[in-house]
Design brief:
The complex is a heterodimer of chains A (290) and B (318). Chain A is mainly alpha-helical. Chain A folds into two domains: 42 residues; 222 residues, MetI-like fold, CATH 1.10.3720. In chain A, 71% of the residues lie in helices and 0% in strands. Chain A contains 14 helices and no strands. Chain B has 318 residues and is mainly α. Chain B folds into two domains: 44 residues, no CATH class; 237 residues, MetI-like (MetI-like fold, Orthogonal Bundle). Chain B is globular and about 70 Å long. The relative contact order of chain B is 0.11. Classes of the chains: A mainly alpha (290), B mainly alpha (318). Chains A and B meet through helix 1, helix 4, helix 5, helix 6 and helix 9 of A and helix 1, helix 2, helix 5, helix 6 and helix 7 of B.
Chain lengths: 290, 318
């Protein structure tokens, strides 16, 4: 019983959704186009165009020839890899005991953790704690202050609670202690949730910006997002990149800027298929009350 | 009277209870040891800062520390409330927050409803996959994208407008366009992600309801009004409570990155002001006091929003 107006509404929905999807992709495409457009093209057209007749990867060569971007990438890769590993370690070590009803003070501890979602000391006291602990201007300041995300903690705890208890009990009967049960039984069963939470943490580290401007002031500790933001804001790129500017003169600053944006986007695009596989599940588990 | 009677037997039971809980603690010793790093984290980075709000009542000095800085009572709060900046940052915070609630929550629902009407599964999957992608990009990248489109002299949109002879635009530093840019890019980044939770709620609706409605002669719009919308109402209310509870968070991450001195009048929010006061001008106590004010209001808001939601008939968060 499909009426004519029904079909019209359907068509309209398809069109709106298609346009929306295109408008999501378009800016990403344009960033890439800007990053590969040669200066001659820009001059000829009086600006950047959607479809340049030639392209060059000169901008990418320049940013990797400088020390600024590779150094920042090194910092960001370090905090992404080491930070994510430690995040998963500390979060699972906290979530596993709290997923068991028998753990002493469980409810009190959970309440104290969830309360941090409702009330916090704010920016300045946290900043002062980071200083007092001696983390200020060290690479640790870039991820230690965010060691456990309460959201990720709740996802993990809910997942541990959903695991079949029989397997764990069998392991205990066979003489496994708490730690052995966690390492040999629970963690292998938790690969999907570890992947989900690990990706959440990892993307958070890759995108880290505020810890980079609040807790470190030394230039050689700046993560990529901080350098990128500085680059976008300064009109002259050569100063920010600190390289010989003879080659840079051949490229519009915008081209270099967009090449850096593209470099920062790339890892996200690469992990996206994995992310997609797991994260809806993760969001849904997290939405269930902790 | 009752109290004393009840407490008598409890007193005698205490030593045994105590020994029992001690034994329980010993049995769980590895579990307790495992939790130490995580608990230490929450203590150091959440609870110590909560104690650190004491500096809001001091004239805090980095060298003297909390122990040595003089106490000033509520002076800091007085300074804030009398500051000419205060009404401005309050207004900007609330306006931007309300804009976000209206222009984020409604598009989330609309996108979910549209995706729900789609029968072609592959089309639905493709649109979804594309639209929730930008959620994972940083605000810096989003700002880079905004820059690529709207930068003066080089942005795609700016040069297009110039080439058409409609004049030179500088949207990034124009007070009239700051908020639309903020909300628009937020929409671009987060709508696809926001729709997911509604789609999950929609998937949970009993399909027999629709079949029954069709038998009763309900058309598409009536089905939507009587089945679909009630099906996502509780999720909507829940998210609305959370949004209202954090209404004084106007999105520091994004605003700080988009903000420049030319648009302070429309874009400076509580958090960006606190950031500048504290970390740039080193007025730690003023900044912390503003933070305390914000946290307390936020707590009151979320508790009352939750209560209201329960009263109105839905369920609250807790």
């Amino acid at each position: 019983m499909v009426t004519k107006s029904d079909r019209l509404v359907d068509a309209l929905i398809y069109i709106v959704l298609a346009l929306f999807a295109l408008s999501t992709l378009f800016p990403l495409y344009f960033v890439f186009v800007m990053s590969v457009t040669p200066y001659t093209e820009v001059l000829r057209n009086g600006g950047f165009v959607l479809w340049p007749s030639s392209f060059t990867f000169q901008a990418y060569k320049e940013i990797f020839a400088s020390s600024r971007i590779p150094d920042a990438l090194q910092i960001t890769v370090f905090i992404t890899v080491v930070g994510t590993f430690l995040n998963l370690l500390v979060t699972s070590l906290l979530a596993y005991p709290l997923s068991k009803k028998s753990t002493p003070w469980r409810n009190g501890i959970l309440l104290a953790i969830v309360f941090t979602l409702l009330f916090n000391g704010g920016l300045i006291p946290t900043y002062l704690v980071v200083r007092e602990l001696g983390l200020y201007n060290t690479i640790w300041a870039l991820f230690v202050p965010g060691m456990v995300s309460t959201f990720n903690f709740l996802i993990m705890k809910t997942y541990f609670e959903s695991l079949p208890q029989e397997v764990e009990e069998a392991a205990r009967v066979d003489g496994c202690g708490d730690i052995a049960t966690l390492v040999r039984i629970v963690l292998p069963l938790s690969a999907p949730i570890m992947a989900t939470v690990g990706l959440f943490y990892g993307i958070g580290h890759w995108n880290e910006y505020f810890k980079g401007i609040m807790y470190v002031t030394e230039r050689n500790l700046a993560p990529i997002q901080v350098v990128l933001r500085n680059m976008i804001q300064t009109p002259s790129i050569s100063q920010e990149l600190a390289v010989n500017s003879t080659n840079l003169a051949m490229l519009p600053p915008e081209t270099i800027k967009m090449a850096t944006v593209a470099v920062a986007i790339l890892p996200i695009v690469l992990v996206y298929p994995f992310l997609q596989k797991y994260f809806i599940k993760g969001v849904m588990i997290g939405a269930v009350k902790g | 009277m009752n109290k004393t009677i009840v407490s008598e037997p409890m007193n005698t039971a205490k030593p045994m209870e105590y020994r029992k809980s001690l034994r329980r603690l010993y049995r769980s010793k590895w579990m307790m040891i495992m939790m130490i790093p995580g608990l230490l984290y929450y203590l150091l980075f959440h609870y110590v800062p909560m104690a650190g709000i004491l500096i809001a009542f001091q004239d805090y000095n980095l060298l003297k520390g909390i122990g040595g800085s003089p106490w000033v009572g509520l002076d800091n709060f007085r300074i804030i409330f009398q500051s000419p900046d205060f009404p401005l940052i309050m207004k900007n915070t609330l306006v931007i927050s309300v804009y976000r609630i209206v222009f984020n929550m409604l598009p989330d629902v609309m996108l979910a409803l549209m995706l729900n009407e789609i029968r072609s599964q592959w089309f639905k999957r493709v649109v979804q996959t594309i639209t929730y992608g930008p959620h994972f990009l940083s605000w810096i990248i989003v700002y880079g994208i905004v820059f690529s489109l709207f930068a003066p002299g080089s942005g795609l949109f700016t040069t297009f407008v110039r080439d058409m002879g409609w004049g030179e635009l500088n949207l990034l530093t124009d007070a009239d366009y700051f908020r639309p840019l903020l909300i628009g890019s937020d929409l671009w980044k987060n709508v696809g992600f926001g729709a997911i939770i509604y789609l999950a709620a929609l998937a949970g609706i009993n399909q027999e309801l629709y079949e029954a409605a069709v038998v009763d002669g309900a058309g598409r719009w009536r089905q939507m009004w009587h089945i679909t919308l009630p099906g996502i109402r509780s999720v909507f209310v829940l998210l609305l409570i959370l949004r209202l509870g954090s209404i004084l968070d106007a999105g520091f991450d994004q605003v700080y990155i988009f903000l420049n001195a030319r648009v302070y009048d429309v874009g400076d929010i509580i958090d960006t002001w606190v950031f500048r006061q504290g970390l740039e001008q080193l007025n730690f106590s003023i900044a912390a006091a503003t933070g305390v004010f914000k946290s307390v209001i936020g707590l009151v808001f979320i508790l009352s929003a939750n209560k209201l939601a329960k009263k109105v008939g839905g369920s609250g968060i807790w």
